[in-house]
Amino acid sequence: MPVPAVIAGATSEFALNTGSLQKAVADLTPEQWLARPSDHSNHVTWIVGHVLWARHALINRVGGKWSCPDLEIFARSAKLDASASYPAPEALLALWRDSAAALDATLNALTPEVLAAPAPPGPPSQDGKVSGFIGVLAWHETYHLGQVAYLSSWLGHSGIFG
Hints:
162 residues; 54% helix; single chain
């Protein structure tokens, strides 16, 4: 089933983000995944984990199924814990690829009726509907992808788009 027009932009944004994140982190060492410009900022590991947590929430709140253990340390309003043991980059990237397939399948299966239903509680919705909830989470993910791209550049790597 084709993606309904009301979420076509968000769906494209998620697809672009999937590839862009992988490009942004391709040359990072495991140590660089944990580097932070200051004690008040997050590292790439935390940001990627947080986006995975948000993808998990999105998929499961709109009727899809994707299980992913141990993401609560990245939940909304959670703070980075410098003493915590975070997943390895390879594990996060495997989850990232898995989430992309689950997200794509979920978005492609949504009907106009589901998209017009009231938004689930939690993050805001642009229009009070499921469609607006999806749009906000696409924007949220892109925002955090920008942070990852900045951190990668700060660490001396090329930008996502050249």
